[in-house]
Design a protein that fits this description.
The two termini are 53 Å apart. The strands form seven sheets. The chain has a 20-stranded antiparallel sheet that branches. Helix content is 25%, strand content 25%. Among the domains are: 111 residues, no CATH class; 123 residues, no CATH class; 184 residues, no CATH class. By secondary structure, the chain is of the alpha+beta class. The chain contains 20 helices and 37 strands. It binds 2-acetamido-2-deoxy-beta-D-glucopyranose (7 copies). The site of one 2-acetamido-2-deoxy-beta-D-glucopyranose has 2 residues, from loops. One 2-acetamido-2-deoxy-beta-D-glucopyranose binds next to loops.
C-alpha cells in the first residue's frame, strides 16, 4: 500500500518536473507544491509535521505517493492521509519531514501515482521495537525506552552509547485545604502523586516519525489516604529519525474538587546518571533572557583566591572536560576539597515579568540567591562533559507562569535529577474555587436579573473546572557531552517557537479543502486597501494587548478579553460576562482565514495559542458536560451556559489539518461528536424557554438551536466523515439525515430551534409547530458561531450537485437573504417579520453569500455593503488607532494602549465579514 497506517518509502522524484501552477486543469496526475516555514527559517529543523490540502478528485487515496526535495536534494518524508473527499480522493495529507541542521528555505512535495511499493526499511528510519514491558524507539541519535505499565513513563534515554536520562516521571503535589490568607494557620494534608500508567501505545509509526502515547492517572504515593487515582494525563512523545530531541505534548484533565484538591506542583522529572563524573566536570545551564544562560559547574574553579590556570577556567566555562589535575597549579589541586559543591539549583518564573534563581550546597543548608531576570526562555540542562546529559524545555515558559526548574543532587554519584515545573511548587496553591459565593442567585429569575446586570449567567453548581484541560509542549534533548551555549541557544529558539511549515495561500485556496469563503490577499487600493489595513490593525491590536495587559498564566495564556471598561481604562476582567472571551463571536473565524489568505506568521502564532486555549480550557473533556464549552466569564469555566457554540470544531479545523492532524486536537474534536449526550444533561435554553411549551430532554427529540448547537455538532460530524474516523459512516448518515430533515421543514433555517434526534441526526419540527406549519425563531447568535462556515463546508464536501445538498444550500441562502431583508420582504415570505435582528455588520457576510450565489446579484451585493458599512459594528469612521494612556499621575496602573471603541464581539465579527465579503463580492464600493 502506498500510504496509510504503516509507512511510505518513496525512492524517487526529486527531479520531477515542478509545475508552476498547482493543479493544471487537464492532464498530469503529478502535482508539486511548495511548503515554506511559517515566519523566519528556523535555526534548525528538529523534524516537522505539516498538512497539505488537495482538490476533489485529484489524487486517489490508495494510488498516490509523495516525495520531497529541497534545492536539488531529495529529502526523506513520511506521508499519510488525514482527510478524504466523498469520492475517496485525498482532501488533506499529513507529512513528517526529516530533521536537518542545514535548513532549506522551502521544500517541494511531489505526488506520484506510480507508487513504488518498497516496504523495505531504510537504515535511517526511526525504529520502534516493542517487547513485554517496554517500547523502544531509536532515532539514530537517541534511543528511548518507554514503559507500558507502572509509574515511570520513560525508562531511559541514551545517546552516543551512554544513558543520559532515566526514570522519567510525572510529579504532582496537592494539599487538602489552604490557609486562605488567614493569620491562623490551618492544618491540612500534603499529598504526593505519581503516574499510574493505563496504556502505552505506538500511536503513529513510519519512516521519519514515531509517536508513543502514554495514558494514565495520577495515583497517591502515601498509603491510607483514601484518595482515588485522578487527574487523567495523556503524554505524547514524538521522535524523528536523526534527531536528538523528543517533542512531548503533555495534556492533563482536571477532575478534582476545587475546595479540597489544591494543586501545589505539576512537573516532569528525569534522573541524570552522572556516576563518577568529576564535580568540576558537571554542568548546569538554565536559560535566562534572550538566549543567555546561567553557566555553572557543580564545583566551580573560577573566581577563587587561587587560580588553576586560564586554560582550566576557559574549559570549565565552555563545558569541556578539564585538563588532568596534575597539570594545574599544585597549590590549587591540593585544596580542591575546600571548594563547595552545589547540589541544588532552582529557577522560579512566578510572573510574566520576573524569574528568580537560587542554589544551595545541599538540603538543610541555606539557599543563596543568584542574580535574576525577567523572562526565561525556558530550558535547563544537567549533565557532565564526559557523561553527557539532558536538556528539558517548555514552550511559552514565562507566558504560562508559574513555572520553573529544579536541579537536585547534582553532586551525587547515584541520582541527580532535573525537574521541569509546569506549575511551580514555589507558587501559591492553584485556586480553582468559584470566584464568588453565588450572591443569593438561587432561582432562574434572579439569575436572569443578575445576568442583565453583570452579564454573568450564573447557576449554582455550574461554576466548576471539573473536566477542563491544559496541554503543554515540552522538548527533551539528549546530549553525549555538555553542549555549547550556542547549541543550547538554538534549542531555546526552537522551544520558544517550534518550526511549522505550510503551503502558499494560493494552493490552500484552490484546493477548496480549507474553507470556501476566503481568497488570498492581493494588492489592493482604495476602500479594499483600507479594509485590509483594518484587519492588520485588529490582529496586531489583540496581539499587543496580550502583552500590554499581561494576559498570561497557566490557565489564561491564549485567551483575551471580551469588553473594555473605558472609565477605568481596563478590560472588564472582573465583570461577569465581560471578562475572558472564550471564543465569543468567533474570533477564530477571523484569525485562521486571515492566516490562510496572508501566510502571516504572527497571525498563525496567535491563532495557535488561541486554538490550544479554547479547545482545552474553555471545553469540558470528562464529566457530564464532556464536549461542551463554557460561555465567556471571569473564570474560563465560570458561566452556566455550557454549549457547543464554544467547543465547535469549526474554530480549530484549519489548525488541525495544517498541523498534519495534531493528535491532541483530533482527540478533542472527537469529544464533540458526543456533545449531544451532554446537551441531554444541560438544556442550553432551560432558563429562557417559553413556559407554555412542555419539554423534557430526550435523546430522540433534543430541542436545540440550529445555529449555536447543531452547527457545532455538524462541524464535528463533518470532520469525522472527512477523516474517515471510526464513526465516519454514522457521521455521514447523521449529516444527511439532518439535511433531509431540515429540507422538509416549511421554514428551513428560519425555524431556528428544532428537534434533533441524537441517534439518527434527523431534524424535525419544534414542539411549538408539530404539524410543520412554519415556525419562525430568529436569533442574532445563530449565525455568529460558524453556522455559515459549517453549512458551506458541508455543501462543498458533498457537492452542490447532490439533490439534498442543493436544497440545503437553497435553504441556507434563504436564511442568508432574509435575516437582513426588509420587514415587508420577511413578512411576505414567512407571514411575519423578524424581531431580534442585530449584529448586522457581522451578518453582512450572509447577505454577501446570497448575492454571490445569485449570480453576483448587484442589488443584494449593495445591501450587503450597506449592512457592513452603515448599520452597527465597527464603523469606517471609528478611529482605527489605539492611544497611549500614561501611567504618570494617572489612574492607570501601568502605561496602556487603548482603543475603547473596540469590543471583541465586534472585532471578531468584523474580521470574518471583511474576509468573506471581499471574497464573495470583490472590492467594496
Ligand atoms: C482503492 O480505492 C478504490 C476506490 O476508492 C477502492 O475501490 C479500492 O478498494 C481501493 N483499494 C485498496 C487496496 O484500498
Ligand atoms: C604555593 O604556595 C606556597 C605556600 O603558600 C607558595 O610559597 C608558592 O609560591 C605557591 N606556588 C604558586 C605557584 O603560587
Ligand atoms: C527583559 O530584560 C531584557 C534585558 O535583561 C530587556 O532587554 C527586555 O526589554 C526585558 N523585557 C521586558 C518585557 O521587560
Ligand atoms: C402562554 O400561554 C398563555 C395563555 O395562552 C398566554 O397568555 C401567554 O402569553 C403565553 N406565554 C408565552 C410566553 O407565550
Ligand atoms: C455539477 O453539474 C454540472 C452540470 O452538470 C457539472 O458541470 C459539474 O462538473 C458538476 N459538479 C460536480 C462537483 O459534480
Ligand atoms: C437580485 O435580487 C433581487 C432581490 O432578491 C431580485 O428582486 C432581483 O430580481 C435580482 N436581480 C437579478 C438580476 O437577478
Ligand atoms: C510626568 O508628568 C509630569 C508633569 O505632569 C511631566 O513633567 C513628566 O515629564 C512626566 N513624566 C513622564 C515620564 O512622562
Amino acid at each position: 500500500m502506498c500510504i496509510g497506517k504503516w509507512k511510505l518509502v518513496v525512492v524517487c522524484l526529486a527531479a520531477e518536473h515542478v509545475a508552476s501552477q498547482p493543479w493544471p486543469k487537464s492532464g498530469g496526475s503529478s502535482d508539486s507544491v511548495k511548503v515554506k516555514w511559517i515566519g523566519d527559517k528556523p535555526v534548525l529543523n528538529p523534524g516537522t509535521t505539516f498538512g497539505l490540502p488537495w482538490p476533489r478528485g485529484r489524487h486517489a487515496a490508495n494510488k498516490t505517493s509523495f516525495s520531497a526535495s529541497a534545492g536539488n536534494e531529495a529529502v526523506r518524508i513520511q506521508s499519510w492521509v488525514t482527510s478524504y473527499w466523498p469520492d475517496g480522493s485525498i482532501k488533506w495529507t499529513g507529512h513528517a519531514v526529516e530533521p536537518s541542521t542545514d535548513v532549506p528555505d522551502e521544500y517541494v512535495i511531489v505526488t506520484s501515482s506510480s507508487c513504488q511499493k518498497t516496504a523495505k526499511r531504510a537504515s535511517e528510519d526511526v525504529s520502534v521495537r516493542s517487547n513485554g514491558d517496554t517500547i523502544t524507539v531509536d532515532t539514530g541519535k537517541v534511543s528511548v525506552v518507554f514503559a507500558k505499565a507502572g509509574n515511570i513513563l520513560v525508562k531511559s534515554i541514551s545517546t552516543g552509547g551512554k544513558i543520559v536520562g532515566q526514570n522519567g516521571v510525572l510529579v504532582l503535589r496537592t494539599q487538602t485545604d489552604t490557609d486562605d490568607g488567614s493569620d491562623i494557620p490551618r492544618i491540612f494534608d500534603r499529598l504526593q502523586f505519581e503516574a499510574s500508567i493505563d496504556e502505552t501505545k505506538v500511536e503513529n509509526q513510519g519512516s521519519v516519525r514515531a509517536l508513543v502515547t502514554v495514558k494514565g492517572k495520577h495515583a497517591v504515593k502515601q498509603s491510607n489516604t483514601g484518595q482515588d487515582p485522578w487527574l487523567p494525563f495523556t503524554v505524547r512523545f514524538y521522535l524523528y529519525s536523526g534527531s536528538e530531541a523528543i517533542r512531548v505534548v503533555h495534556s492533563l484533565v482536571y477532575d478534582g474538587k476545587p475546595d479540597k484538591d489544591f494543586i501545589t506542583a505539576i512537573g516532569l522529572r528525569f534522573d541524570v546518571p552522572l556516576g563518577d563524573e568529576q564535580l568540576y566536570n558537571r554542568h548546569i545551564r538554565i536559560a535566562g533572557v534572550d538566549g543567555g544562560f546561567l553557566t555553572e559547574s557543580v564545583q566551580g574553579i573560577t573566581g577563587l583566591r587561587r587560580d588553576p590556570g586560564a586554560g582550566v577556567r576557559k574549559a570549565q566555562i565552555g563545558g569541556k572536560t578539564l585538563p588532568d589535575v596534575a597539570t594545574w597549579d599544585r597549590n590549587f589541586t591540593t585544596r580542591l576539597q575546600w571548594i563547595p559543591a552545589f547540589n541544588d539549583y532552582s529557577l522560579s518564573q512566578l510572573s510574566p515579568d520576573g524569574f528568580t534563581l537560587k542554589k544551595r550546597t545541599k538540603a538543610g543548608q541555606s539557599w543563596i540567591n543568584i542574580p535574576a531576570g525577567n523572562r526565561s526562555s525556558g530550558l535547563a540542562y544537567l549533565g557532565g562533559s564526559t557523561k553527557g546529559g539532558l536538556a528539558i524545555g517548555l514552550r511559552d515558559f514565562w507566558k504560562k507562569y508559574p513555572t520553573g526548574f529544579s536541579i537536585s543532587n547534582a553532586a551525587s554519584r547515584t541520582v541527580s535529577t532535573a525537574t521541569l515545573w509546569l506549575y511551580s511548587p514555589e507558587a501559591p496553591p492553584m485556586d480553582l474555587r468559584p470566584w464568588h459565593d453565588e450572591m443569593g442567585q438561587d432561582t432562574y429569575a434572579k439569575q436572569l436579573e443578575a445576568l442583565d446586570t453583570t452579564y454573568e449567567d450564573y447557576e449554582p453548581g455550574f461554576m466548576t473546572p471539573y473536566g477542563v484541560a491544559r496541554t503543554s509542549e515540552v522538548y527533551i534533548i539528549g546530549f553525549p557531552s555538555t553542549p555549547s551555549a550556542e547549541t543550547l541557544g538554538k534549542w531555546t529558539k526552537i522551544i520558544e517557537e517550534p518550526p511549522a511549515l505550510a503551503t502558499e495561500p494560493e494552493v490552500l485556496y484552490k484546493s477548496k479543502a480549507a474553507g470556501v469563503l476566503w481568497a488570498p490577499r492581493t494588492e489592493t487600493s482604495g476602500s479594499a486597501a483600507t479594509l485590509e489595513s483594518h484587519l492588520d490593525f485588529l490582529a496586531k491590536f489583540y496581539r499587543d494587548q496580550v502583552e500590554n495587559r499581561r494576559w498570561y498564566g497557566f490557565w489564561d495564556h491564549g485567551d483575551f478579553m471580551h469588553t473594555y471598561d473605558a472609565s477605568r481604562h481596563t478590560w472588564a476582567y472582573d465583570v461577569g460576562g465581560y471578562a475572558w472571551d472564550n471564543g465569543e463571536l468567533s474570533p477564530d473565524l477571523f484569525f485562521w482565514p486571515q492566516f490562510l489568505r496572508t501566510g502571516d506568521a504572527s497571525v498563525y502564532r496567535f491563532a495557535e495559542a488561541v486554538a490550544r486555549h479554547g479547545s482545552e480550557v474553555d471545553q469540558y473533556h470528562v464529566g457530564p458536560w464532556k464536549g461542551l464549552g463554557t460561555r465567556h466569564g471571569v473564570q474560563h469555566w465560570g458561566d452556566s451556559a455550557k454549549q457547543v457554540r464554544i467547543s465547535t470544531p469549526i474554530f480549530r479545523k484549519v489548525f488541525y489539518y495544517l498541523t498534519g492532524g495534531d493528535e491532541r486536537q483530533g482527540e478533542i474534536i472527537r469529544e464533540v461528536l458526543d456533545a449531544d449526550q451532554a446537551i441531554l444533561q444541560v438544556d442550553p435554553r432551560r432558563k429562557v424557554r417559553d413556559p407554555n411549551i412542555t419539554y423534557v430532554p430526550d435523546p430522540e427529540a433534543l430541542y436545540i438551536s440550529l445555529g449555536t448547537d447543531w452547527s457545532g455538532l455538524a462541524a464535528a460530524l463533518l470532520i469525522e466523515w472527512e477523516t474517515r474516523g471510526p464513526r465516519w459512516e454514522e457521521a455521514r448518515s447523521k449529516l444527511i439525515s439532518s439535511m433531509r430533515g431540515l429540507n422538509a421543514l416549511k421554514n428551513g433555517f428560519i425555524t431556528g430551534e428544532v428537534f434533533y434526534n441524537s441517534k439518527t441526526g434527523l431534524i424535525s419540527p419544534p414542539p411549538d409547530d408539530p404539524d410543520n406549519k412554519g415556525s419562525v425563531t430568529i436569533s442574532h447568535l445563530s449565525a455568529s458561531f460558524g453556522e455559515s462556515e459549517v453549512v458551506t463546508e458541508l455543501i462543498n464536501h458533498i457537492g452542490a450537485n447532490d439533490t439534498d445538498a442543493s436544497t440545503f444550500e437553497k435553504n441556507w441562502l434563504d436564511y442568508c437573504y432574509y435575516y437582513g431583508a426588509s420587514k415587508a420582504e420577511q413578512a411576505a415570505r414567512y407571514g411575519t417579520s423578524f424581531s431580534g435582528i442585530s449584529l448586522r455588520q457581522g451578518h453582512s457576510k450572509l447577505t454577501a453569500l446570497a448575492a454571490n450565489r445569485d449570480g453576483g446579484n448587484a442589488t443584494i451585493a449593495a445591501r450587503a455593503w450597506k449592512e457592513f458599512f452603515s448599520t452597527d459594528g465597527l464603523a469606517p469612521t471609528a478611529p482605527w488607532v489605539s492611544v497611549p494612556i500614561s501611567g504618570n499621575h494617572s489612574i492607570v496602573l501601568v502605561p496602556v494602549e487603548e482603543a475603547s471603541w473596540i469590543s471583541t464581539n465586534e472585532a471578531a465579527q468584523y474580521g470574518g465579514a471583511v474576509i468573506e465579503n471581499m471574497y464573495l463580492l470583490g472590492s467594496p464600493p
